Structures are given as C-alpha cells and as structure tokens.
Amino acid sequence: MIKTHRRGFTLIELLVVISIVAVLSTLAAVMAPKILKKSAQTKTVQSMQRMASSLRLYANDHANRIPPPMTPASENEEKDDIYWFTYLEEQTSGKTLDELLKDGYWKQTKSSDFVNPTIPKKDLKHDSVGYAMNGALATNIALNRGEDLDPELALTTPVNLLTVRNPERTPIIRPHWTWSYKGDKAEASDKKLLPYLAGGTLPVLYLDGHVETMTPVAYTTKGLHEVPKVEKDN
Length: 234
Known about the structure:
The protein has 234 residues and is an alpha+beta fold. Helices cover 40% and strands 10% of the residues. β6 and β7 form a beta hairpin. The chain starts with 10 loop residues before the first helix and ends in a 13-residue tail after the last helix.
C-alpha cells in the first residue's frame, strides 16, 4: 500500500496568505463606505426626480405656484413655521400638517422621498430632512424684473412657474443641512456639506425635472446661484 504524505503550509505561504487577506480587508474597509455613499446618492437622485412630479402637482393646485422655502408661523393656521417639503409630504402621504411638524414622523418614516438617505435617522427633524430649496430664486427673479426683494422675504415668497423662462436651467432642490440654500461661494466651501457629498459631488434638481450631479464649486462657477441672472447692457 502506497502511503501519501500531506504537506502543510510553509511559513512563507502562510505569510503570503495573511498578506493577501490583509490587503483585501483594507480595500474593503476603504471601498465599502464609498460604495454605500454612491448607492445612497443614486437613491437620492431617484427621490429628487419624484420631487419634481410633486412640485408640478402642487403648482397645479396652487395657481402655478410652488411652495416657498418656508411659510412663517404668522401666516398659517398651524402657528408654526412650515417648510416646502412639509407641504409636499402632506400632498403625497395624506398625513396632516400637525403630524408632519413633529420630529418623530421624519425619524420613523420609511417611504418619504423628502428624507435624504445619506442622513442618519437620529439627525432628522421636522425642519431638517437633508434637502433644501433654492432660497435665492425669488430674489433673482425679482432682480431680473428690475425689482428689489429682500433675501429674507424671498425665503417666504412662492415662485410662480410661469415667471421662469428657462426651467431646464433653473436649479430648485439639492442636498443640504437645512431647509434652504444659497449655493454661493461661502456654502460651497462649508464643511457642513461634506456628509451630503459622494465622490465630492451632489445632485441638483432643476425645475424641468432633470437632475445633474456636480461639485458645490461647479454649481457656483456655472453661476447657478444667480439664475435667472440679470443681463447687463453692453
């Protein structure tokens, strides 16, 4: 009878295997968060595309006007500040404003398009869901007409979609740490934007319903924070 001898791993072979496992573990530790972040951004883009439909439905019922970034407590029956996403969530979910003005709703909901998937549930509040509306839009529209609109007042002024000449060029919603954004140079360099970025970029929803992904600096460089921009005479 022929005897066979099983040879065990040599020390060098074991070291090679251990090295390979260590490298793979390091790659997994580095890549996994990036992959998860990219996946979350994909979900964000899909949600933002549905937001465009919600904005159109709201405008159809409100004389072509979309909700302002914020409606102050002094101007509504709830006697509480109400944000643009609150009105849209009321429209799509069937919940009452009273329910939506509680932090608990936003922490617990699993189906809202207005909750940014990149934000931990514990950080969600009724006034901060990870998306913001363009707070400069009403001001820029007024300037384009030769009028002057205080930036603070602009945050409570609903925009009539019929006054927007180029919806495909007009940004309206993007990920952000509060309920409105300016998109200027100061915000582009603000570290509070970092949790909302994937590969250094964030998605931007335009009024015509399409979404573009860009860096915060590119948003400013393209002049999107000034749209619609006043054309100067030569």
